Each structure stands twice: as C-alpha cells, then as structure tokens.
Amino acid sequence: MNRRFQGWIILLIFLLATYSPPVSAEGQIEPVLLIRLTLKPQVTLRGLGPITLYYRSEKDLAEKPHFSSASWQKVEDAAIYHQLSWQVTMVDGQLILHSEQGDLITGDLPILLHNSGSGFELNGADYPGNLILWPDADEGLIILNEVGLEDYVCGVLGSEAYASWSLEALKANAVAIRSYTIHSLGKHDAFDLCAENHCQVYRGLPQAAVFRAAVTATAGEVLTWRGTPINAVYHSSSGGRTRNNEDVWCGLPLPYLRSVEDFDHDGRNYQWPNAYLCSVEELAHGLILPGEQALQVTPIPSVNGERVGFWFGGTSGGRGLKNEELRRLLGLPSANFRVFCYPEQTEITQPIVLPPGASLLFVGTGSGHGVGLSQWGAAALAARGYTYQQILRHYYGTEVDWENYATAVR
Ligand SMILES: [Zn+2]
User: Fold this and answer.
1) Buried b vs exposed e over 122-154: b needs ≥16 C-beta within 10 Å?
2) CA 192 to centroid of ligand 1, rounded, Å
C-alpha cells in the first residue's frame, strides 16, 4: 500500500477489474470523455458496484488524466464496499472520504474510483463510468467523471431536454449534442467539457427511458460539414427566428449556422417572463464606463439591416456590444429583444442620447443565444410529423452530412 494513503480501510468485496473502453455495436472504439462535474458540497458518494482504488503521484492537473494512462497505480488490497455511503471533502489540501460507518480514507494525492460498469451515485444522481477526485491546491476538490460518449450524450439529453417531447425531437437533440460534444473536445485543457452552460449541462444519467431510446436509436451519429463534425450549437427557444452565427458571436459565417424561421411560438420559453429595466448608471458601470451621467446609444446593423448590437458612448470613451454580449452582461433570457427609452417608452431604432436618470427597457422573446437548433422549435416540428433528420436539416441546412463518430473523430 502506498504510504501516502495511510488509513485505508480494507472493506469487503475486492474484484480485480481490467479496463476496456466501450465498444459500439459495429465493433468500433467509443470515445471516452473527461467531464468536470459541478456538485454542491458536501458531496455524498456511493458506488453502484464494487469499487477499486487507484492513485497517482503527480498533483498538477496538467493534462487529461485518463484511466488508460500509465500514471494510475492500483492501491493494493483496497476496495470500497459499494453499499456504503461516503462524504467527500477537502481540508487543508487533504482529500477526505468518510463513510457512514466511520471509516476514513485520506490523502493528498489524486485518486480514481473504478468499477466494472455499474457507476456511482453522487448527491443522489447516477453517474456512469469512473470517478476521479483531484485535490487541487488552487481550486480545491475537482471531481471528474470519465464517461463513454453515448452515456454522456444520454446524460446531457436528460439535463437539456424534456421527457415529454416526442422521440423524433429527442433524437434530433441527441445528434446535435453528440456533434457539439465531438466538436468541443479541445474546449478545456485538463478535461474535455465542464458540466455547466459554458459547455453543456450534465447532471448524470436521467431516469426516463425515452432519453436512452433516443440516444440508442441514433448511436454514433454526428453531423459533419466537409468531413468534420460541426459546431452544432443549440438553444432553448429563438423567439421566432434563429440567428446567423456571425451576428451573435465573433467569427466568419458558417454555412450550417444560418438564420431560419423557427416554430417555437407555443414553447414554454417563447415569452420572456417579464421586461428588464436598466438605468444609465447601471449600464455605464457594466460597460466599464463608470461615472457617465448620459450615454449615446447607437444601434449597430448587420449587412441585412437587422440590428445586431449597440454602440454605447460617453465622455470617457465608448464600447460596442452585440445583442448576445448585452444578454450576458445584463442577464437577459435571450438576445432577441427590442429596446426602449424609459420612461418615454420610445423604441431605440436611431442614435439617441440617454439623459441622466433615464433607463433602457428590454422586451423580448426566446431563451438562449438563438443560434443552431431551437429545442422548442424542434419539439413543435416533431409534433407536426417531421423526422429527426428533417428537423436537423431545417436548423443546420441541407449541406450537412451524417457520419459515425468512429470515422469522424481523428
Ligand atoms: Zn466548459
């Protein structure tokens, strides 16, 4: 036993498990991802099968610590009995696992909990694959879930979609999630994706069987353009029409992220729950133009004449923001909004000067950035009888192709 892990409690079942990556129905190796989880402390952990422990001597989380790498070493003669519930914390650089029976595991090195396929329960939710507990000096306890692509897609689908949507809508979402996942694998350095909106929301495996059915029915399918998996971004509800990628973010126009009509009008997130008011002072502070009493407000049009943002100017300088940047700055539901002077309630379509004491009133529809697949629009199209392929071609265009991940991933 490694001396750095004094105090291991050797419990009941110990199985020598050999690791083998998941294999798809076609016999192709399935990609294995590392997802950084976001869990509320105190984390409660329970194995859903026998767990074998591994450790590694490096403390820096510098590159993806996959189980398949040679750095993990088995803690001999140690296993965690899977019926026990453990509290996981980090105190003074020490990782502490404390069982409901009073057993204690502690150490300052990263550990990996491996089981033979039954997964874990974390704060009441089921997670497949392996678990890595990494005591990081700067960030505290980092928890990584090493999970096969298909299980991960199922988890994201259950977190980002509704079980009440029809199967074709869920299949369209599954292909979009899988495509976006593979496209995004380089988004973080030491792991593949985080479990929040920055990448995709992932809260473990869902309970409803319909999510797994949608993933299985589309297993391995990704959308490609010119042979490369596309950045298949998606959002809840566009508010009537999706957006061109270059109107929302920086970058060149992508042929598969064009503005198209949406069918989300009856969706749950079509209407904003309320309007949003922002004073000149609040806006100037948020724009890092503090102290400005009045602001010049100028709409920025796209090449099509559609307003895609605003220029805000003061005596100390100015700053242009796209609608999506304003959404993020002010916490608005979507980037699809109209802006009015308040209290006059005149819409801002021409340059104006917002006087001291005035405010901007934001009124809008939709939820999310508005680019790519609209989830509520997809649900409406599926209810009209569209297949998942037709739904995907509506939102990503007719130039996209389908490929299996094993051939699409290089
Ligand atoms: Zn992320």
Assistant:
1) bbebbbbbbbbbbbeeeeebbbbbbbbbbbbbb
2) 8
- Sorted by where each begins, the domain ranges of the chain are 3-148, 150-266+369-408, 276-364
pLDDT per position as a tens digit, 348-396? 999 999 998 899 999 999 999 999 999 999 999 999 999 999 999 999 9
Confirm if 256 and 272 have CB atoms less than 8 A apart: no
Overall average pLDDT of the 283-299 stretch: 87
CA 38–ligand 1 middle distance (angstroms): 11
Give the distance, in angstroms, between the CA of residue 283 and the centroid of all CA atoms in the same chain. 28
Q: pLDDT for 143-173, tens place per residue? A: 999 999 999 999 999 999 999 999 999 999 9
CA of residue 5 to ligand 1 center, whole Å: 32
Report the separation in Å between the CA atom of 188 and the middle of ligand 1, taken as the mean of its atom positions.
7
Alpha-carbon distance of 295 to 288, in angstroms, equals 12
Ligand 1: centre distance to CA 152 (Å): 14
C-alpha to C-alpha distances, 247 to 47, 242, 244, 287, nearest whole angstrom: 47, 11, 5, 20
Residues with CB under 5 A from ligand 1 (ion): 194, 198-199
- CA distance linking residue 379 with residue 396, whole number of Å: 16
- pTM exceeds cut of 0.85: yes
